[in-house]
Structure formats: structure tokens, C-alpha cells
């Protein structure tokens, strides 16, 4: 199936970046958000990133203009009626996502593929809420989307081979590296990353080492570009806790129990960079 028209739903951190990479690949993209303010913010973010790319000589003025012509912004979901592919990047709530997918199921043409950027929710359950479960799939981009090369392509148990092949081809067209993943809690990325972060927090909790020293071990000893606690602060400690709970519940295995210190920080409102304090203090 040829994919020409795309809609991205949710103009937040992820959605705006996803719309940008589609426009960069020459596709017509509509960015949707239910809030005009969020849409304006998403648009401003894209324009600023493109401006910076032109200033730094990474993009020509002509290419920037071309990309902006490929992008439109709308609060009206009905505009998905001529789209071949829709990528949902709204808040991480099953209730909200199912509501969006059921509306899309009615609005979009029968051939359209419906993808979700969820980082933890079961794609199989989202697919089951639609009348086209074989055309539902996970397309998990990494943050910041324009920079990170990986896209995890997550197959729900119902996803057809054709849907998978179309989405994989699209990811390659976006110049990303797709990785095929089955729908299990945490997929691959968070199943491996979050227990490492949780273990780093246990190491601090048990007084084995300070946050600075834990990060130094992983950076200087393991060649990680960023220590696990710096990364946790960047992701948001509430998000880390939420994903650990998904793993814990999904596998029913105590090895995924969230560290009590992580719970305590979240209760204190110490959520990392976004709240000004996590394992480190941010001015
Ligand atoms: P965000 O909070 O920055 O943006 C969400 C946007 O969705 C908001 O602008 C909100 O107004 C909009 N929205 C909410 N309900 C809507 C609806 N019914 N229709 C249209 N728009 C709606 O969230 P963020 O960080 O961009 O995350 C979005 C999704 O991407 C989540 O599922 C998250 O788990 C996933 N994700 C996030 C990553 C991250 O590092 N932030 C990484 C990979 C995936």
C-alpha cells in the first residue's frame, strides 16, 4: 500500500517531532491536537528547530520552506478522512487512546493503518477496540524524534504482515532504523532500560554509592553516554515509576518491583528535570 497522507495526533513532545520527520521525508502531514494552545506550541517548536537547522547550515532555506508546505495544523479530527496512516501520540492513558482509535476507525478510509506511539500500553488491547485490528500497530519513536534513529515496530497479536511491511517501509523512508518487536510489556526498549534505572536507584537507596558515582560508573566504565540517574531525571521519575509498574503487573515477577526510593521521590513531587529536582537539582 502506498502511504502519502499522514496524520499525527497529539502535538506534544513526541507528536510534533514525529510530524517533523514525516514532512522531512516529503510526506503530507496534518498535526492534530484537541487544544489549540498545544497545537500552536507544537508548530512553534517545529519552526524553531528548522530555523536552527538552517542557521547551522544543516538545511537549506528552500528545504525548510518545502517542509513547512507539507505540514498543516488542525484541531479537527475529521481531517483524518483522507489519510493512509495515522500515528497517535496523545497522553499515555488507555481510556484516551481507545477513545481516539474508535473515532479514527469511523473517520479514516478502510485501508488506513492506525499506529500508536505508546511507550507501555498493550497494542493488542488497542487493536481489539477497533473494527480493523489487523491494521493496528505500534510505532514507538524515541525522544527527541528528529535525532534518534530507532523506531520499535510493535506487532499486536492481530497485526497483519501487510500492515507490518508497510510501516517498516515507512520507517525506512523516514531514515530511521526499524526493529520488529512482539507486543509484551515494555517492548524491548523499556524492558531493558527501566530495570537498569530501577537497579541504579536501589544502589543509591541501599547506600552503595551516591547518584554521581553510580552515573560515573556507567558512563566511564560502560561507555554509556549518560548515567542512568541523569537519564531517569530526564525521562521523568513519574514516567519511570509508571513503566516499572506496567512491567511488574504485566509479568507478575518481583524482579520488576519499583524501588521504594523511586516511589518516595515521586510522592515528594521530585520528578526530575521537569520539576527542578530529582536525583539532581536543576536551576
Ligand atoms: P505530551 O503530554 O507532551 O503530549 C500529549 C499531547 O496530546 C498534548 O498536547 C495533549 O493536548 C494532546 N492530547 C491529549 N488528548 C488528546 C486527544 N484526545 N486528541 C488530540 N490530542 C490530545 O506527551 P508526549 O511526551 O508527547 O507523549 C505522547 C505519547 O508518546 C505517550 O503515549 C507517551 O507514552 C509516548 N512516548 C513518549 C516519550 C517521551 O519521551 N516523552 C517517548 C516515547 C513514547
Q: Rg from C-alpha positions? A: 20 Å
Q: Tell me, rounded to a whole number, the average pLDDT.
A: 97
Strand content is 5-15%
Low-confidence stretches: none
Helix content: 40-55%
* Lateral strand order in the biggest sheet: 3-2-1-4-5-6-7-8
The helix-strand sequence is EHEHHEEHEHEEHEHHHHH
Give a quick account of the main beta sheet: strands, pairing sense, barrel closure: 8 strands, mixed
> How widely separated are the two ends?
50 Å
User: What is the general shape?
Assistant: globular
Label the structural class: alpha/beta
Identify every distinct bound molecule in the structure, by name, code or SMILES: 1,4-dihydronicotinamide adenine dinucleotide
Q: What's the β-strand tally?
A: 8
Q: State the helix count.
A: 11
Family: Belongs to the 3-hydroxyacyl-CoA dehydrogenase family.
Pathway: Lipid metabolism; butanoate metabolism
Protein name: 3-hydroxybutyryl-CoA dehydrogenase
Keywords: Oxidoreductase
Summarize the structure.
With 283 residues, this protein is of the alpha/beta class. The chain contains 11 helices and 8 strands.
Topology record:
Blueprint: E1 5-9, H1 13-24, E2 28-32, H2 36-55, H3 61-70, E3 71-74, E4 85-88, H4 94-107, E5 113-116, H5 123-128, E6 136-141, E7 150-155, H6 161-173, E8 177-182, H7 189-205, H8 211-222, H9 228-235, H10 237-251, H11 260-268
Parallel strand pairs: 1-2, 1-4, 2-3, 4-5, 5-6, 7-8
Antiparallel strand pairs: 6-7
Helix pairs in contact: 1-2, 7-9, 7-10, 10-11
The protein binds 1,4-dihydronicotinamide adenine dinucleotide.
Amino acid at each position: 500500500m502506498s502511504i502519502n497522507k499522514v496524520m499525527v495526533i497529539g502535538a506534544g513532545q513526541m507528536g510534533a517531532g514525529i510530524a517533523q520527520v514525516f514532512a522531512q521525508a516529503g510526506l503530507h502531514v496534518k498535526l492534530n491536537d484537541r487544544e489549540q494552545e498545544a497545537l500552536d506550541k507544537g508548530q512553534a517548536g517545529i519552526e524553531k528547530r528548522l530555523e536552527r537547522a538552517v542557521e547551522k547550515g544543516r538545511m537549506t532555506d528552500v528545504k525548510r520552506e518545502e517542509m513547512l508546505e507539507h505540514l498543516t495544523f488542525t484541531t479537527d479530527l475529521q481531517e483524518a478522512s483522507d489519510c493512509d496512516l495515522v500515528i497517535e501520540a496523545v497522553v499515555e492513558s488507555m481510556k484516551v487512546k481507545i477513545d481516539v482509535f474508535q473515532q479514527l476507525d469511523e473517520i479514516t478510509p478502510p485501508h488506513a493503518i492506525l499506529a500508536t506511539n505508546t511507550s507501555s500500553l498493550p497494542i493488542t488491547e488497542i487493536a481489539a477496540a477497533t473494527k480493523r485490528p489487523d491494521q493496528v500497530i505500534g510505532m514507538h519513536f524515541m525522544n527527541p524524534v528528529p535525532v534518534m534513529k530507532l523506531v520499535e515496530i510493535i506487532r499486536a497479536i492481530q497485526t497483519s504482515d501487510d500492515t507490518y511491511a508497510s510501516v517498516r517501509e515507512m520507517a525506512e523512508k523516514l531514515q530511521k532504523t526499524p526493529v520488529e518487536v512482539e507486543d509484551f510489556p515494555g517492548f524491548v526498549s523499556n524492558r531493558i532500560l527501566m530495570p537498569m534505572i530501577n537497579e541504579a536507584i536501589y544502589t543509591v537507596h541501599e547506600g552503595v554509592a551516591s547518584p554521581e558515582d553510580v552515573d560515573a560508573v556507567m558512563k566511564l566504565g560502560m561507555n554509556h553516554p549518560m548515567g542512568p540517574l541523569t537519564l531517569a531525571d530526564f525521562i521523568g521519575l513519574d514516567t519511570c515509576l509508571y513503566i516499572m509498574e506496567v512491567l511488574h503487573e504485566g509479568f507478575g515477577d518481583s524482579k520488576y518491583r519499583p524501588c521504594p526510593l523511586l516511589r518516595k521521590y515521586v510522592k515528594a513531587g521530585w520528578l526530575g528535570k521537569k520539576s527542578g529536582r530529582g536525583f539532581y537539582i536543576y536551576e
